[in-house]
Model the fold of this input.
Amino acid sequence: MSSSYNEKLSILSEMIAFARTDKVIKESEYLFLVGVAAHLGVDKDAFDELLHKKVVKKRLKSQADRIVQFHRLILLMNIDQHQQDEEIENLYNIGLNMGLPPSAIGQVLEVMHLYPNMVVPPDVLIKIFKAHYN
Done:
């Protein structure tokens, strides 16, 4: 297995763990995760295996990849239109562990409420992170 494939499994494993914050993966979350897996080139059988095993977490190398992963996690959190404080706190901590600026993470979590379905448009997300890196 290539390291890039292992990175993809790590990305999905992190998302599965995040989806389990409220102890259960809802059908809408599962379908979203299957779609992300397909987009990453991970087949459904390999994805389903991840539901039952842990993968060694790999830190995404580029800042852009970490921002994309943070965005995926926001989308996952908001898929059911219901955020719990525990989910928001968990997402904030994941962002910190990724090495993202705390002020940018906080700003994204604040502005998501301004958009339909709480989906922060990618260009807005990028502007927020760029502003915090300059």
Observations:
- The helical segments are 3-19, 27-40, 44-50, 63-78, 85-97, 102-111, 122-133.
- The chain has one domain: 3-133.
- Residues 3-133 form one domain.
- The chain is about 65% helix and 0% strand.
